[in-house]
């Protein structure tokens, strides 16, 4: 009985994956980590990407592909991601997979980070100037929506910006803008607090 259920699950997974690939061939390289529906997989350190803005997806995929992101020796998961983007042939392939991911329905994300949301609200005042008071992002500021992203991933990226793992490459203009903002968060607890506040905006 268990074997039959396992077979059905695996069969369903590959049918789902095949449908995703049918929509955009480039997404075939994303499925194994980010899941067929783009909901991510925390066990693989792959964040949710479904519904992310096309312009932001394109920027980050190009950053990975060019080496502006994902090359720091401490960015293990970024290095893994960069290897995947190198399989996207050109800007047209990046644009296509970005548009497909953006068309996916966003999934509700679970809150896992414990922090002081009241303290985080005060800290978020710095973030709101670019990401908006509701953390929904502002394209004119090149700032993505933060509310549909897993909190563990937000914590990691803020820590990466703070420590220089991300946002130091001269060609990553927007990352360089973000890094000094993240450095205003005094410590890991401050990072968790601001993310805990973002969780209240879902």
Task: Report what the structure shows.
The structure is a single chain. With 202 residues, the chain is mainly alpha-helical. It has 2 domains: 42-103, Cytochrome c-like domain (Cytochrome Bc1 Complex, Chain D, domain 2); 117-199, Cytochrome c-like domain (Cytochrome Bc1 Complex, Chain D, domain 2, Orthogonal Bundle). Helix content is 57%, strand content 0%. The chain has 9 helices and no strands. The chain has helices at 2-23, 28-34, 54-66, 76-85, 91-103, 117-131, 151-163, 173-182, 188-199. Helix 3 (54-66) crosses helix 4 (76-85) and helix 7 (151-163) crosses helix 8 (173-182). The longest helix is centred in the N-terminal third of the chain and has 22 residues, at 2-23. It starts with a helix and ends with a helix. 35% of the residues are buried. The model is unreliable at 4-22 (pLDDT under 50).
Total individual domains: 2
The secondary structure category is: mainly alpha
Secondary-structure element series = HHHHHHHHH
Rg of Cα set: 17 Å
